[in-house]
Amino acid sequence: MRIMGIDFGTKRIGVAISDELLITAQGMESIVTAGSDKDLAKIAGIAAEYKAEEIIVGLPLNMDGTESKKTRETIAFLEKLRRVVSIPVKTWDERLTSIQADRAMLEADLSRKRRKELSDRVAAQLILQGYLDSKRPKGDYD
Length: 142
Prior knowledge:
alpha/beta; Nucleotidyltransferase, domain 5; about 25% strand; about 45% helix
């Protein structure tokens, strides 16, 4: 079993996939948006290729937990995604994942250009890893 993670953006969509044991998430790619139908088809294709049984989409809430314009755009995207895939599509609170991704890439001393290329897939990886960690029984791997 594998789970796919998505960091939705209007310019790029970050994609991550779990290992078969659901322990780690790996950043796969950043899809440069080409229009809703093409983007959805690409995501569905990746999910099928890796035999993902679930998709987790990062939900960008405000720090106080309220919805923003970006939250509503993401919800509209995931509703469309649910119509093109036959597996469950769930949300995961993604507050601070972009900041964590940027920090990790700065610590790795990546160039500004390389950080821009990787930021969406790293954010997707962090979203998915948070979800995987939440599903692990307490005490495992501590």
